[in-house]
Amino acid sequence: MNEFLGIDAGGSNFRIAVVDDNENIIYHNSLKGNFNYTSAGNEIINNYFKRIKKEFNNIKAVSIAMAGIGTKDQKIQLKSIIFNNLQNCKKVNIFTDAEGSLEANFQSSSGILIICGTGSIVIGKNDNNTCRAGGWGYLLDDEGSGFWFSKKIVMEYLRYVDGISSNKEIFDLVNEKFNGSPREIISDFYRPEKRNLMASLSLDFLKNSNSYIKDLINTSVFHNVQRIKKVKKELKIKKAKIAFMGGMFNNEFFLDSFKKTLMMEIEDADISKGITEIEIALAKNAKKGCEL
Fold it and tell me: Under CATH, what is the fold of the domain 3-108+276-291?
């Protein structure tokens, strides 16, 4: 039996799916840990492919989406790791995490994907062309992401501590989360291993329905919709299929603001929730790619 492997690897999870010739799922699992290519490194990635090698002996193709991979040299090294471990493998497709999510959601059609999770990005495809907007990283942008919201709120709180900004209701929650210590905030925000935790605080911050939080949400949504419009224009997509993914969309006000703003700006937009099991779609992508 031929086996086809799909992997969705990020900074906190390694999700794997294997399908057979008929695209039946024969294995599906998830591991916790850092599998960002840049920060995890070749040794950790290689060790996990050694584990896959022990479980499966006839993998013919692999489609992998991985955070932290983007350069040509990185992709060459990753392909070498895969081919060295999976010796029956004939084809490897490597995507960035955003590209993999886009491919999983729009395998045979044009479309635009917006992700607002720990980070954020807008990415689209039409035929063989792709275009992206945003996604410049947590230090420079990622507007509308979990980390971005936490950072904006904490920055405003520190302005209040310095006597520049007025007190806001949300600052009571900031004090609670950081034990009323601005220096503790600084310590946590500058530690890379705390980045996901800092991003997750936004889920609690955004539960507040005060005007300050609503303004932050509406502003970030409007800017990201402009990014969607830019991608749509660049790719010359007429009727846009737009999928959304990420934890920020679990916030009711955020999702409602996004849908309303998008329909105002792009009247014929076809909006849907993106698929979450990227690894399964990528396993099927590997099978289809092996047929070409």
Answer: Nucleotidyltransferase; domain 5 (3.30.420)
